[in-house]
Amino acid sequence: MSNSGINVFRYSALIAGLLYGFNTQRSLNVQQKRNQVDRDYRAQESLIARARAEFTKKTMPPESKTPSGNVEQEDEMRRGDSELTCGTWEIVIADPDDPKFDLEAYLTLKEAAEAK
Questions:
Q1: What is the pLDDT of residues 83-115, one digit of tens each?
Q2: What angle do CA 111, 84, 60 make, to 5 degrees?
Q3: What's the CA gap between 25 and 106, in Å, rounded?
Q4: Diameter over CA atoms, the chain
Q5: Alpha-carbon torsion, ordered 101, 107, 112, 116, to 10 deg
Q6: What is the pTM of this model?
Q7: pLDDT per residue over 44-83, tens digit each?
Q8: Do 37 and 43 meet the contact criterion of CB atoms below 8 Å apart?
């Protein structure tokens, strides 16, 4: 009789060990998949951030603003065909239909012209 009791205990321990191993392996796999999804998401975020920076750098007209975002004012302003020029190096596009039109730069330039 004691032999059958030992066998029951032995098989019960075996089944409990298998269930524990299965459960542990499943939770480790789930955690690994979550970490992989998080890494992929962070990689996508960084790609999107770099793409946005490149897009804004590509689409921002270099002639309408200085790097600080302010329009440089000089003493003499000339009006060309749909362009206002401050000095010799900066052009502010005055045509609102132009895709490079910058309203802030244009209004700042007009405000400076009226102040003179």
A1: 444 444 467 777 888 888 888 888 888 888 888
A2: 95
A3: 64
A4: 112
A5: 110
A6: 0.42
A7: 999 999 999 888 888 876 665 444 444 444 333 444 444 4
A8: no
Q: Pairing relation of β-strands 77-79 and 83-86? A: antiparallel
What letter would DSSP give residue 1? Answer: -
User: What is the distance between the alpha carbons of residues 61 and 92, in angstroms, rounded to a whole number?
Assistant: 10
d(CA 94, CA 77): 13
DSSP output for 44-102? HHHHHHHHHHHHHHHHS-TTT--TTSPPP--S-EEE-SSEEEETTTEEEE--TTSTT--
Structure tokens at 100: 């490079």
The answer to whether 83 and 94 are in contact (CB under 8 A) is yes
Q: How many CB atoms lie within 10 A of CB 106?
A: 18
